[in-house]
């Protein structure tokens, strides 16, 4: 992949920046910070059904959804995109999480006829602004080159072998992978990373709002805690959106305080664009809007759009 990035752009390990950046759409990019795990074997569905928050048994062939894997205490080890292609399942998640999730799941996989493979020979590519219909959302289109996943907000992911990556990117307008992560923030999507592993239950990042949690499936690891939070009392933590000037450098998990100096949460994700920095924070509040301080920087927090009419 080094040859690909050197011929088309550069990377700092977190973001891909093309040599020639297109501001128009559609435009393609390389999600260098994402990885893939493939799960194979006749028991894979049954194994994953007992470990993940989403309803794996209801996931049809050629479809994808969001999901998470929790500890017995309901804390997320990782969250991900999960796709089904025939009898195989694929998980797309931050690359810093792939080994940790594989190690966690392997403790339970020994009791099933299943195999987990981190596909280091595959890459995650993406396209923003490709028009699609609601009917096409959450579909997985497979061909000889790889797997193409359609998002409901006119985004597309393409998972393929490294050898196919150059052909998929070459000859098309390219954009920074920051644009993809900014779109995630705009959609209210937080990805658990190495620094936030086992910090949150799914509801803390509104994962149920993205259908990443099924409350009607059977038991899975951590299910009792997750279900209790949903049915016996609403979560006291929620996801908030904010903006900061681009030149302010703040690390994820930086504590956030209210105007009185009391700690109320932490920074979940942050991405810089030309004008400013956009971020998401997990906050101990259910207010629609509140003033806060991140580091030494005053900021106004706003509940993420899909929670404005819901307290779930």
Automatic annotation (TrEMBL):
Region (Disordered) residue ranges read: 1-20
Q: Which residues form the GCVT N-terminal domain?
A: 34-126
Polar residues composition bias: which ranges? 1-10
- Which residues lie in coiled coils? none
The secretion signal range is none
Alphabetized Pfam families for the sequence: GCV_T (PF01571)
State the Gene Ontology BP annotations.
iron-sulfur cluster assembly
Q: Which PANTHER family match?
A: TRANSFERASE CAF17, MITOCHONDRIAL-RELATED
Question: What is the recorded name of this protein?
Answer: Folate-dependent protein for Fe/S cluster synthesis/repair in oxidative stress
Query: What does the record give as the organism's lineage?
Result: unclassified sequences, metagenomes, ecological metagenomes
């Amino acid at each position: 992949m080094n040859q690909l990035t050197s011929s088309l752009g550069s990377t700092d390990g977190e973001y891909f920046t093309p040599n020639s950046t297109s501001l128009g759409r559609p435009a393609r990019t390389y999600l260098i910070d994402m990885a893939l795990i493939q799960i194979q074997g006749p028991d894979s569905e049954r194994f994953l059904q007992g470990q993940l928050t989403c309803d794996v048994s209801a996931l049809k062939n050629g479809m994808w959804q969001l999901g998470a894997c929790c500890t017995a205490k309901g804390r997320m080890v990782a969250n991900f995109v999960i796709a089904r292609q025939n009898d195989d399942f694929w998980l797309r998640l931050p690359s810093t999480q792939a080994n940790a999730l594989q190690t966690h799941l392997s403790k339970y996989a020994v009791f099933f006829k299943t195999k987990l493979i981190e596909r280091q020979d595959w890459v995650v590519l993406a396209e923003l602004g490709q028009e699609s219909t609601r009917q096409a959302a959450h579909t997985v289109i497979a061909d000889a080159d790889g797997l193409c996943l359609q998002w409901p907000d006119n985004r597309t992911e393409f998972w393929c072998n490294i050898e196919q990556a150059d052909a998929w990117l070459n000859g098309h307008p390219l954009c920074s992978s920051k644009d993809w992560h900014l779109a995630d923030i705009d959609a209210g999507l937080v990805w658990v990373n190495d620094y936030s592993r086992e910090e949150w239950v799914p509801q803390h990042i509104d994962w149920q709002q993205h259908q990443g949690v099924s409350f009607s499936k059977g038991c899975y690891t951590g299910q009792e805690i997750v279900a209790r939070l949903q049915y016996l009392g609403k979560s006291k933590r929620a996801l908030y959106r904010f903006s900061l000037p681009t030149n302010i450098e703040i690390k994820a998990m930086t504590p956030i305080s209210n105007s009185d100096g009391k700690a109320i949460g932490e920074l979940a994700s942050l991405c810089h664009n030309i004008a400013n920095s956009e971020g998401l924070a997990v906050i101990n509040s259910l207010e629609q809007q509140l003033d806060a301080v991140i580091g030494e920087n005053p900021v106004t927090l706003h509940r993420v759009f899909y929670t404005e009419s819901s307290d779930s």
